[in-house]
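Same chain as my last thread, 486 residues:
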Amino acid sequence: MTGVAPSFDLLRSSWPLLAASDEKVISKLNVTAAWDGAQIAQVDVAGERHVQDALFAAFSMFRQKDRWLSLARRIELLENVATLLKDNRETLAIESARESGKPIVDARREVQRSIDCAAVAIAHLQSDQDKSFPADLKAPVQPIEPTVFGRTEPGGVVVAVLAANHGLELAARYLFAAVAAGCPIIIKPSADAPLSCLRLVHMLHEAGLPYVWSQCVVTQSDEVTQSLMGDPRVALLCFVGAASLGWSLRSQLPPGTRCMLDHGGVTPAIVSSDADVALTQAALLDGAFCCAGQDSLSIQRVYLLAAQAEGFAQELAVAAQALPWGDPLLESTKVGPLIRPSEVERIHSWVTAAVAAGAHLLCGGVALSERCYAPTVLLNPPIDSLVSTQPCFGPVLCVYACGDLLEACDRANALPYALVAAVFTQSHQTLETLFGALDASAVVANSNPSHLPVRLSLSGLRRSGLGASGILAGIEAMQLRKALVC
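reply #2:
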């Protein structure tokens, strides 16, 4: 497959505030393909004045309560945009594959998950259980206990700052949550891969959402982004990205601004001696090398009993070496490029350092091109090496030998990151024991954690995040519950 998704002036067409600006003050961003660096599109970039205009428009809209979106209207908008997503599946998948580098098969899965986000939000709104206000508010003559009626209301302006790895799905998660919650949202995609987010915002406007309810800004500098995130008119900041940056941003937020941080982890997998070997190896390969490891839930650490570890790791390495890599638009590609060439250099330095410190390199460990890194399997890297302690965000899988499953669990829990974990076993007792012992928001049995259902909310533990991530968690965080007591 070698098709090219059509592109257009997404930002200008979907944001009249920028369209009305002086051409001389607008800078441009060249968006390039992760695979070969070819230019895909050119988008307008927002400066400080544009960001201030966006904040003013969103906050002014929120303060006009008579213009809030009704429940029926929100459902209608989400149904409309879901239809547009379905009608443009392949265009969206191609564009996502080109800008992010994920294989086209994975890009199609991302489109489907974005559609699922809309479906989950619609179902949530349709099952709203708020108590309606009574027709007669007269208090009883001798009240024993007051009656409480409640409803949810929009909490205020939302700002969402996204990473590059799943531009469409992340945008769908926060944009659809904001529509469902009835909140104005300003969303900032990664400059490395902004097109999927821009296109989804445009689709929301095409579905009937007034532009001021959903604005997309590609900022020209970190300072402009900081100005957006740190504005006191922002009720909720949703940040997806590096933990060091997210926690630093939180400490700088003005009083009253709430935040959700989504940083991912260093996902562990524990393999019991009774695990189905073929199923386990397939799930680990998919979990480690899907999207070239550029997923916050990618499996990075695998723990096995010492008697199994080396042979199992060798088999994994043989299978990893056979994974087809290359152009993400080819149907056969399993491992595509990293988001930028500098990531290849960083990952290679981490792998090289681990090998120098004693890790056994079973496969990979080399750059396949300026933009692609070979699927890499390491056996027993030092527990203090970067590949063992930090999110690698690349195609690197580390296998460790342990004395028993409890030691494996202790080592899996030893890091300051904890989000999800995987367990491979055919024993219900083993699964139950590890489920209780592992530090994780979700424990996945015998499959790849990256494919968790979109309705699931995940709470990052320790440095992995703050609050829960997911479409339903987003809706809840963006709303407030309001009570009438009578």
